[in-house]
Amino acid sequence: MAIKAKSLSVGLPFGLGHLDFEANEVEQRAAWALYVELETRIATKPFDEEHGLLRNVLSSLYTLFGLTREILREAGPEVVHGPKSFGVIAIEVLSKGIAPFTIWHQPLLDYEQKRPPEVSALEHEKAWEHYPQMRAELDKLQEQMKIYADVLAEIAGAT
């Protein structure tokens, strides 16, 4: 069964503006693949402060770079047909949305390496002086990623 092209007008996250275009079948399938990845990761889910580790958040977000590249490669050039096409937006979300948050990787790693063996990773992480700031930035990122997931669902025709 073929998917019909769908005209869209949606607001984008991370200050990327507005998207007015007609999604083709390839874009719809790629959007669905990315949507599934986002909706099954911490990128769009509430952080469990009682049990969750920020290290795991960073790892999950980092995998989105490889998954997005793979999905775009498989979809091919049909997802790039102008500056506001699906492929371009997907890359901009990585570079302007997720990448700035990954600056936390090295500072968190440096702190993790100072953990005494008798202290759990969770206790140690929560005691980090930058924990509140990183959590606040994660909340903002997740708000924007939820917007992106909603856009992907719309492009995919899942709404």
Concise overview:
By secondary structure, this protein is mainly alpha-helical.
What would you note in describing this structure?
57% of the residues lie in helices and 8% in strands. The protein is mostly helical. The chain has one domain. A two-stranded antiparallel ribbon has the order 1-2. Strand 1 and strand 2 form a beta hairpin. Helix 1 packs antiparallel against helix 2 and helix 2 packs antiparallel against helix 3. The longest helix is centred in the C-terminal third of the chain and has 26 residues. The two termini are 18 Å apart. The N terminus is likely disordered.
Structural descriptors:
159 residues; two-stranded antiparallel ribbon; disordered N terminus; 6 helices; elongated; mainly alpha
Give the helix/strand class: mainly alpha
Note the run of SSEs as H and E. Answer: EEHHHHHH
Mean pLDDT: 91
Question: What's the alpha carbon Rg, rounded to whole Å?
Answer: 18 Å
What is the count of helical runs? 6
Topology:
Layout: E1 6-11, E2 18-23, H1 25-39, H2 54-75, H3 86-98, H4 105-112, H5 121-126, H6 131-156
Helix pairs in contact: 1-2, 1-6, 2-3
